[in-house]
Write a structure and sequence with these properties.
The chain is mainly α and 539 residues long. The chain is built from 14 helices and five strands.
C-alpha cells in the first residue's frame, strides 16, 4: 500500500529521484535549465479545456427546455465546483506546507472522489428513474386520455365480461372466499381502519395476483391491459368534475407537471442524507473498532463489513417492496373510498362533501393524508431517496476501491459483491419506476390537488386554445382571401372570354364591305367596262 501512495504522490513532487519526469534539466556540474517541453503540456491542457467547454455547451443546449435534466446538470456542476475547490486546497498544501503527510492525503483524495462518484451515480440513477417512469406514464396517462369514448365503452364491457369469467375461475379453484375482489363496482373497504392491516391486505392481493399470473398468464395480461385505461378514465372524470374544469382539460398534462416536480425533489441529495451518511460511517467505525479490539483479527472486521453490505442490499429490496404494497393500497383506496373534501362555499359552517372516484356501495369517509404513514406523504420520497443514495454509495465504493478489493480480498470475490449490488438495484429500479407514478397520482388528485400547478396547467391550456383559435381564424382569413382572389381571377377571365366572344362578330361585320358600298363598286366597275367598250380605239 505504501508503494501505491508513493506512486500516487510522485506527480506532486518536483525533485524526487525516482520520478520519471523532471521539470529541470541539467548535465553534471552545470546550472539547471527550465525544460521547454512543459509548453506542450500547456497546449494539451488548453485543448482539453476547450473540448470540455464545447461538450458542456452542447449539454446545456440539449437540456434546455427540460427542467429535470437542467436540475441534474446544475447538481453535477455544483459537485464539480466542490471537487475543484477541495483539490485546489490540497494543491496549496502540497506546494507550501512542510512535512505534508502524503499517505494520508492519498487516502483523503480517494474518499473524496468516492463521495463525488456517489453524487454522479445518484444523478445517473435519477435519470434512469425519469426515463422509466416517463415511459410508463406516457402509456398510462397520455395514451389513455387520448382514447376515443366509444373505444373506452368497448373496453369497459370487455372488462366486465372478463370479471365474470375470473369469478368462475376463482370459484373452480376455491378462491372465492379468500381472494380479494378486483371488481370496480364492489370494493371491500373493511380494512381501512388500520394501516398495517391495509398493507397486509395489499400483500395478500399481490400474492393472489402472482398465483393467478402463474396459473393464467394470458388472462392476467388481458385484465391488466383493460384495467389501466378504466382506472385512469374514472380518475380523470372525477378530477374534472370536482375541480370544475372544462371537458377538454388534459389531466395528463397536469400529472406530467406533477411528476416533474416529484422527480426534481427526488434527484436532490439533501443535507440530511449527507448527515445520515456521516452518522452511519461513525457507527460502522465504532463497531469495527470494537470487533477489532475484541478479536484482534482484521479478517473479522472485513467479514463484518461484508455482511453489512449484503444486509443493506437485502433490506433495501425488502423495504422497496413494502413501499410498493403501501402505494398500491393507497391507490386502491383513493379509487374506491369516499374522500372528505372541504367545501369552500360553506366556509362559515365548515361543512364537508364527499366523493368517490369509483362508484361503490361500501364506502367510508376518510381523510386522504391519513392514508400515508405518519400523515406525511413526503416520507415515501424520502425513503426512496435514501435507498437510491445507498445504492449510489455502494457503486461509488466498488468503483473507487475495486482494484484493492480484487487484490487483497480474503473472504469473497468482489465480483460477486458487485453482482449482488447490481441485481438488488435492478429490482429496486423496477419498483421505484412504479412507485413514483403512483405517488404522483395519490398526491396530485383528490384532496391533495396542487392548486397552483393546476391553475398553471389550465392557463397553459387556455393559452394554447387561444393560439389555436387565432391560428384557425388566420387560416380561415387566408383561405377566404385566396377564394376571393381566385373568384376575381375567374370573373376577370370570364369577362375577358365574354368580351372576346362578343368582339369577334363585330370585327367580322366591321371588316366585311357594306352592301351599298358593294353595289356602288359594282356600278363603278360596270361604268368603267362600258367606257372601255365605247372607246373608238378598241375596235
Amino acid at each position: 500500500m505504501n508503494d501505491y501512495y508513493d506512486y500516487y504522490n510522485s506527480t506532486y513532487i518536483e525533485d524526487r529521484e525516482d520520478s520519471g519526469v523532471h521539470r529541470l534539466l541539467a548535465t553534471d556540474g552545470e546550472a539547471p535549465t527550465v525544460d521547454y517541453a512543459v509548453i506542450s503540456v500547456v497546449i494539451l491542457t488548453l485543448g482539453l479545456i476547450l473540448a470540455i467547454e464545447v461538450f458542456r455547451h452542447q449539454l446545456d443546449v440539449a437540456a434546455s427546455g427540460n427542467p429535470f435534466f437542467q436540475t441534474v446538470l446544475e447538481l453535477m456542476y455544483r459537485e464539480l465546483t466542490t471537487l475543484g475547490i477541495v483539490e485546489f486546497c490540497i494543491y496549496l498544501m502540497h506546494k507550501y506546507q512542510e512535512g505534508f503527510n502524503y499517505q494520508l492525503e492519498g487516502i483523503f483524495v480517494d474518499v473524496h472522489f468516492m463521495l463525488f462518484y456517489t453524487a454522479v451515480f445518484n444523478a445517473i440513477q435519477s435519470c434512469l428513474v425519469r426515463l422509466l417512469a416517463g415511459r410508463r406514464t406516457d402509456k398510462i396517462w397520455i395514451q389513455t386520455e387520448e382514447m376515443d369514448i366509444r373505444h373506452y365503452i368497448g373496453i369497459r364491457k370487455e372488462f366486465d365480461h372478463l370479471e365474470s369469467m375470473l369469478k368462475r375461475v376463482n370459484a373452480d379453484h376455491g378462491w372465492q372466499n379468500n381472494a380479494p375482489s378486483h371488481s370496480l363496482g364492489n370494493s371491500n373497504t373493511s380494512a381501512i381502519d388500520s394501516q398495517s392491516s391495509s398493507v397486509w391486505k395489499s400483500f395478500l392481493e399481490s400474492m393472489h395476483d402472482l398465483a393467478f399470473k402463474i396459473r393464467h398468464p394470458r388472462l392476467s395480461r388481458k385484465k391488466n391491459n383493460l384495467l389501466i385505461p378504466i382506472r385512469f378514465h374514472e380518475l380523470r372524470a372525477h378530477f374534472i368534475d370536482s375541480n370544475n374544469l372544462p371537458p377538454k382539460f388534459k389531466v395528463s398534462h397536469y400529472l406530467k407537471r406533477s411528476l416533474t416536480s416529484v422527480l426534481l425533489d427526488f434527484v436532490h441529495i439533501s443535507s440530511a442524507a449527507w448527515i445520515g451518511l456521516m452518522a452511519t460511517a461513525n457507527l460502522l467505525y465504532f463497531l469495527s473498532g470494537m470487533i477489532l479490539n475484541v478479536t484482534k483479527d482484521s479478517l473479522e472486521v472485513e467479514e463484518f463489513l461484508m455482511y453489512i453490505f449484503l444486509l443493506m442490499m437485502v433490506l433495501f429490496v425488502a423495504f422497496a417492496f413494502i413501499l410498493y404494497f403501501k402505494m398500491k393500497s393507497i391507490f386502491s383506496k383513493i379509487l374506491h373510498m369516499k374522500l372528505t373534501v372541504y367545501d369552500p362555499t360553506q366556509d362559515d359552517r365548515k361543512t364537508w362533501r364527499g366523493f368517490s372516484a369509483l362508484n361503490s356501495r361500501n364506502t367510508k369517509t376518510v381523510d386522504q393524508v391519513n392514508l400515508f404513514w405518519g400523515n406525511n406523504p413526503h416520507f415515501i420520497i424520502v425513503a426512496t431517496q435514501y435507498m437510491q443514495f445507498g445504492y449510489a454509495l455502494g457503486l461509488a465504493l466498488t468503483f473507487t476501491y475495486y482494484k484493492d478489493f480484487a487484490k487483497y480480498y480474503n473472504i469473497i470475490n468482489p465480483n460477486y459483491l458487485f453482482l449482488a449490488l447490481l441485481a438488488s438495484y435492478l429490482i429496486f429500479l423496477s419498483l421505484v419506476s412504479v412507485i413514483i407514478p403512483w405517488y404522483t397520482l395519490c398526491t396530485s388528485m383528490g384532496q391533495l390537488v396542487n392548486k397552483e400547478r393546476l391553475h398553471e396547467t389550465l392557463a397553459k391550456l387556455k393559452l394554447s386554445e387561444e393560439i389555436r383559435r387565432k391560428e384557425s381564424l388566420e387560416e380561415e382569413r387566408k383561405a377566404e382571401e385566396e377564394i376571393a382572389r381566385r373568384k376575381r381571377e375567374i370573373e376577370a377571365k370570364n369577362a375577358e372570354l365574354a368580351a372576346t366572344a362578343s368582339g369577334l362578330p363585330n370585327m367580322k361585320l366591321k371588316d366585311a364591305p357594306d352592301p351599298q358600298q358593294r353595289r356602288g363598286s359594282g356600278l363603278r366597275l360596270l361604268s368603267v367596262v362600258r367606257n372601255k367598250s365605247s372607246d373608238p380605239l378598241d375596235g
